């Protein structure tokens, strides 16, 4: 299974957030939505999770 990455540095924010989350898709989605709500003030919703899912990228393999 390909690991996924959510990287706050790719999106503008007032806090200049530098958090990067990686893992299996469901893990990353759960952590990223909790982070978006608690740190960035977003409302927890199915729409937020779908937006986040669309922003996830495949983790680049390291040798």
TrEMBL record:
It comes from the Bacteria. InterPro entries: DUF1059. It holds the Pfam family DUF1059. This is DUF1059 domain-containing protein. It comes from Streptomyces formicae.
């Amino acid at each position: 299974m390909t690991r996924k990455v959510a990287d706050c540095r790719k999106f503008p924010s007032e806090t200049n957030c530098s958090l990067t989350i990686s893992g299996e898709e469901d893990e990353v989605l759960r952590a990223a939505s909790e982070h978006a709500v608690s740190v960035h003030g977003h409302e927890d919703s199915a729409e937020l999770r779908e937006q986040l899912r669309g922003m996830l990228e495949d983790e680049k393999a390291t040798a």
